[in-house]
Amino acid sequence: MIKKPWAGRFKKGTHKVAEKFSASIDFDRRLYKEDIEGSVAHAGMMAANGIIPEKEAEKIIKGLRQIEKEIDSGKFPFREEYEDIHLNIEKRLIEKIGEVGGKIHTGRSRNDQIALDMRLYLRKEIEEIVELLGLISERLVDLAEKNFGTVLPLYTHLQRGQPVLLSHHLLALFEMLRRDRERYIDCFGRVNVMPLGAGAGAGTTFPIDREHTASALGFPEVTRNSIDTVSDRDFIIEFISVSANLMTHLSRISEELVLWSTKEFDFVDLGDEFTTGSSIMPQKRNPDMAELIRGKTGRVYGDLVAILTIMKGLPFSYNRDMQEDKEPMFDAADTVKSCLAVLHEMLHTIEFKRESMEKALGEGFITATDIADYLTRKGMPFRKAHEVTGKIVGYAEEKGRELVNLHISEYKMFSRTFDEDLFDYITLEGSVGNRKSFGGTAGENVLGMIETAKKDISSWKKEG
Question: Domain spanning 111-149+165-201+220-359: which CATH class is it, in words?
Answer without folding.
Answer: mainly alpha
